[in-house]
Design a protein that fits this description.
Strand order of the largest sheet: 4-3-6-7
Shape: elongated
Helix content: 40-55%
Radius of gyration: 26 Å
Strand content: 15-25%
Mean pLDDT: 78
Number of strands: 7
CATH architecture of one domain: Sandwich
Order of helices and strands: HEEEEEEEHHH
Largest sheet: 4 strands, antiparallel
Oligomer: single chain
CATH superfamily of one domain: Macroglobulin (MG2) domain
Low-confidence stretches: 107-126
CATH class of one domain: Mainly Beta
Length: 192
């Protein structure tokens, strides 16, 4: 019976160490590529981790690569990709896995949607017809579109940081068991 608390303490110690080595992924769109980084919770890079790009509701692999020595990766977006959101999945050593949703940029407007400037004389007329307030408004609208994915990513990160991690829950349970163990030990000493 005396071996039980020892094994319980040993189990809780090893489970918290294993959970402290969780893998994380951060990805973003840059041009025609998904770039990012895969790292463990202690900040060390996940070298040689497999990174895949998948549709949200499927395990089909759209693109894949491996991380470099700094844990960084770059995946070219497949031509003709129809999805508006994808999953970026990282598989690191010893079965560690992380994934995140990534919103893809809307495609640039086609040539028929852009204003056509045929000669130098029409260009100043186009820019001169906009007031300063209209230019500021247009820039504001474009910035809002470009920053929307970053805002949603930051919101997800904040939500994740506010939740207690699995290792914190296990650690709390370990403290409770430890306190009960100390109380039980004190009562057993008291009776002798």
């Amino acid at each position: 019976m005396k071996k039980f608390p020892f094994f319980l303490i040993l189990f809780l110690s090893f489970s918290s160490i294993a959970l402290a080595h969780r893998v994380n992924i951060f990805a973003y769109i840059e041009g025609e590529a998904v770039k990012g980084e895969v790292y463990f919770s202690d900040g060390t890079p996940a070298k040689g981790a497999l990174v895949t790009l998948q549709p949200l509701n499927s395990s089909q692999i759209l693109a894949k690569t491996k991380t470099d020595q700094e844990g960084q990766f770059s995946l070219s977006l497949p031509k003709g990709l129809k999805e508006k959101e994808v999953r970026v999945v990282a598989l690191a050593e010893m079965g560690h896995r992380a994934e995140m949703k990534l919103a893809l940029k809307p495609e640039a407007p086609g040539p028929q949607e852009r204003p056509l400037i045929t000669n130098q004389e029409t260009a100043p007329a186009v820019t001169a017809s906009l007031s300063e307030k209209e230019i500021i408004s247009l820039v504001d609208q474009e910035l809002q579109k470009e920053l929307a994915p970053i805002k949603s990513l930051l919101e997800e990160i904040l939500k994740e940081l506010q939740r207690p991690s699995f290792s914190e829950v296990i650690g709390g349970i370990g403290y409770i068991f430890g306190l009960f163990g100390l109380i039980a030990w004190a009562y057993s000493r008291r009776g002798k």
